[in-house]
């Protein structure tokens, strides 16, 4: 089955700097790659996603890139703000595998003012 | 529009007791999922369902059971609680291969 590896596990940046989180996946059939943000005591919330027919997607300060050949995808946050501090999860799913989401281990991002 | 609702929010169980974690969604989603999240870890898929009457095992199904008699509800059953089942449980729902909406979680402690 699918396996998703996420790095780094913790990331500390200064306000205004950029943050990059990377994930690799194992199942070449995976075709949907969402990123979730989880704040303390809450459920994860989708912040951006990308499908396998697209190489890059951007939404204001957040962007995701996908390299299907290497089976890795990355989250880029520019001009970080203290409210970006949270745990971020990547995930992968395949319609052919029932659409179930398999998550990475998470990255705890801390943005210092 | 409530989204995904989980009950209870907190529960303490004794070893060997049983309980059902409730999950309901009002978005008419066909897919529903149960995940567990251990401290400092990612979300592990326990069971999922692609529609009423259809369920399948995820990554960590042992010790759990589910049913899906309606589109809206997807309860998770723990038959013989063990300390290893101490975790935060999240229910989620989605349309096929799209954004999953999560509930607020149930924090379960087994003592």
Describe the structure.
The complex is a heterodimer of chains A (113) and B (111). Chain A has strands at residues 4-7, 10-14, 19-25, 32-38, 45-51, 56-59, 62-67, 72-77, 86-92, 102-103, 107-112. With 113 residues, chain A is mostly beta strands. In chain A, a hairpin with a 6-residue loop joins strand 4 (32-38) and strand 5. Chain B has no helices and eleven strands. The radius of gyration of chain B is 13 Å and the shape is globular. Chain B starts with a strand and ends with a strand. The interface between A and B is medium-sized, with 26 and 28 residues.
Report a brief summary of the structure.
The complex is a heterodimer of chains A (about 110) and B (about 110). Chain A is about 0% helix and about 55% strand. Chain A is built from no helices and eleven strands.
Helices and strands of chain B, in N-to-C order? EEEEEEEEEEE
Overall pLDDT of chain B: 94
Helix percentage range of chain A: under 10%
Largest interface: A-B, 26 and 28 residues
How does the SSE layout of this entry go?
The complex is a heterodimer of chains A (113) and B (111).
Chain A: E1 4-7, E2 10-14, E3 19-25, E4 32-38, E5 45-51, E6 56-59, E7 62-67, E8 72-77, E9 86-92, E10 102-103, E11 107-112
Parallel strand pairs in A: 2-11
Antiparallel strand pairs in A: 1-3, 3-8, 4-5, 4-9, 6-7, 7-8, 9-10, 9-11
Chain B: E1 4-7, E2 10-13, E3 19-25, E4 31-37, E5 43-51, E6 54-57, E7 64-66, E8 76-78, E9 87-94, E10 101-102, E11 106-110
Parallel strand pairs in B: 2-11
Antiparallel strand pairs in B: 1-3, 3-8, 4-5, 4-9, 5-6, 7-8, 9-10, 9-11
């Amino acid at each position: 089955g699918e396996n998703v590896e996420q790095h780094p596990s913790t990331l500390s940046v200064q306000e205004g700097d950029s943050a990059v989180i990377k994930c690799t996946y194992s199942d070449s059939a995976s075709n949907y790659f969402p990123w979730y943000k989880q704040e303390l005591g809450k459920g994860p919330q989708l912040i951006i996603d990308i499908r396998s027919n697209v190489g890059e997607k951007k939404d204001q300060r957040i962007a995701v890139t996908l390299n299907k050949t290497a089976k890795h995808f990355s989250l880029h946050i520019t001009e970080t703000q203290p409210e970006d501090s949270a745990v971020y999860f990547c995930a992968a799913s395949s319609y052919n595998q029932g659409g179930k989401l398999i998550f990475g281990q998470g990255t705890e991002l801390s943005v210092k003012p | 529009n409530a989204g995904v609702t989980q009950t209870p929010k907190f529960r303490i169980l004794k070893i060997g007791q049983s309980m059902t974690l409730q999950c309901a969604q009002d978005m008419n989603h066909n897919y529903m999922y149960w995940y567990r999240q251990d401290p400092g870890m990612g979300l592990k898929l326990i069971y999922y369902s692609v529609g009423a009457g259809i369920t399948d095992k995820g990554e960590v199904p042992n010790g759990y059971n589910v049913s899906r008699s309606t589109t809206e509800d997807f309860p998770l059953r723990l038959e013989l609680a063990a300390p290893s089942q101490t975790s935060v449980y999240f229910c989620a729902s989605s349309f096929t291969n799209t954004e999953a909406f999560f509930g607020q979680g149930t924090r379960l402690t087994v003592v």
